C-alpha cells in the first residue's frame, strides 16, 4: 500500500484526477471503476476540466460504478446514476452505453448482481478502481464484517451509513436501507486501486485500514493485500497514523 498525504482535500483530489488521467492517456480504452459520495466530487470536476482544456479523451473509456441504492430508478435525484451523470458523464465525451451503474430498481436483484459481475468480466476487468472510505471503514457499501471475498451483492446499510448519507434524502425515513454493491473480492480484483479519504471524521477508519489487522471489521483493510493500491489522504485524515 502506497500512502500519500496531501495538505488539503483539494490537493488530494487533484492528485487522484492526475492518476486517473494518466491511465486514460496510457490506455484510451481503459476500464475505470468509479465511486460516488462527497469525497471524489472535486476529482470529477478536475477530470471535466482536463477534458475541456487539455482534450482528455474518454470516447473509448468504459466505467463501472461501485454501487447503487436498492429501489431507486436511474433518474431518481439521489440515485448514483444521476450523481455520475451530473458530476462527470454529462460533461465529457464518454459513450453513455459504456457507463455502468448497478440497476437498483431491477426486478430480480440477485440476477442483476450476477449480470454486473459478468459485465465487468466481459469488459476485461477493471484497470483502475477509485474508492472512498466510510467512517466505519466500508468500501463500496461493504459494511464491516462482510466477507473479504464477496462478489457483487445486496448489502444492508449500517446505522452509521444511514446517518452519514441521509441528509440528501431529507429525512432518514426516505432513505433506502439496502444497496447493490461490488463485493470486496470484486474491488480487489482491479489491477490498480486509488482510495481517497479526507477530513477528521475518517481518522479512525484510516488508522484501521492502514495499521490495523487485515480483517472484515474494516473492509478497507483488504487493500493491504493489493499489489498496487494507493491511498491519498489529507493532513486531517492522516492525523492518527504513527
Ligand atoms: C460511494 C461508496 C462509498 C463512499 C463512502 C464515503 O460510491 O461506495 O463507499 O465512498 O461512503 O463517502 P463520502 O465520500 O461521502 O464520505
From TrEMBL:
SUPFAM superfamilies: NagB/RpiA/CoA transferase-like. It catalyses: alpha-D-glucosamine 6-phosphate + H2O = beta-D-fructose 6-phosphate + NH4(+). One of its GO terms (biological process) is N-acetylglucosamine catabolic process. One of its GO terms (molecular function) is identical protein binding. Pathway: Amino-sugar metabolism; N-acetylneuraminate degradation; D-fructose 6-phosphate from N-acetylneuraminate: step 5/5. CDD domains: GlcN6P_deaminase (cd01399). Coiled coil: none annotated. The active site is at residues 67, 136, 138, 143. One of its GO terms (cellular component) is cytoplasm. Gene3D superfamilies: 3.40.50.1360. Residues 18-225 form the Glucosamine/galactosamine-6-phosphate isomerase domain. Keywords: Carbohydrate metabolism, Hydrolase. Its EC number is 3.5.99.6. The keyword Transmembrane helix does not apply. Catalyzes the reversible isomerization-deamination of glucosamine 6-phosphate (GlcN6P) to form fructose 6-phosphate (Fru6P) and ammonium ion. PANTHER family: GLUCOSAMINE-6-PHOSPHATE ISOMERASE. Belongs to the glucosamine/galactosamine-6-phosphate isomerase family. NagB subfamily. This is Glucosamine-6-phosphate deaminase. It comes from Synoicihabitans lomoniglobus.
Amino acid at each position: 500500500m502506497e500512502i500519500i498525504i496531501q495538505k488539503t482535500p483539494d490537493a488530494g483530489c487533484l492528485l487522484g484526477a492526475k492518476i486517473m488521467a494518466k491511465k486514460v492517456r496510457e490506455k484510451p480504452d481503459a476500464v475505470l471503476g468509479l465511486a460516488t459520495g462527497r469525497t471524489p466530487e472535486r476529482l470529477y470536476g478536475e477530470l471535466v476540466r482536463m477534458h475541456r482544456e487539455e482534450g482528455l479523451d474518454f470516447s473509448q473509456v468504459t466505467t463501472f460504478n461501485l454501487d447503487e441504492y436498492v429501489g431507486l430508478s436511474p433518474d431518481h435525484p439521489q440515485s448514483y446514476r444521476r450523481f455520475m451523470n451530473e458530476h462527470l458523464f454529462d460533461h465529457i465525451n464518454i459513450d453513455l452505453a459504456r457507463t455502468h451503474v448497478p440497476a437498483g430498481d431491477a426486478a430480480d436483484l440477485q440476477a442483476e448482481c450476477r449480470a454486473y459481475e459478468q459485465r465487468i468480466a466481459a469488459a476485461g476487468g477493471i484497470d483502475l478502481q477509485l474508492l472512498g472510505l466510510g467512517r466505519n471503514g466500508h468500501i463500496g457499501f461493504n459494511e464491516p464484517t462482510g466477507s473479504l471475498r464477496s462478489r457483487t451483492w445486496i448489502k444492508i446499510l449500517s446505522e452509521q451509513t444511514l446517518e452519514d448519507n441521509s441528509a440528501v434524502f431529507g429525512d432518514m425515513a426516505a432513505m433506502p436501507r439496502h444497496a447493490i454493491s461490488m463485493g470486496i473480492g470484486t474491488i480487489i480484483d482491479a489491477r490498480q486501486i486509488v482510495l481517497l479519504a479526507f477530513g477528521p471524521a475518517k481518522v479512525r477508519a484510516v488508522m484501521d485500514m492502514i495499521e490495523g489487522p487485515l480483517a472484515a471489521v474494516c473492509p478497507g483493510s483488504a487493500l493491504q493485500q493489493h499489489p498496487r493500491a494507493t491511498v491519498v489522504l489529507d493532513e486531517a485524515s492522516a492525523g492518527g497514523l504513527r
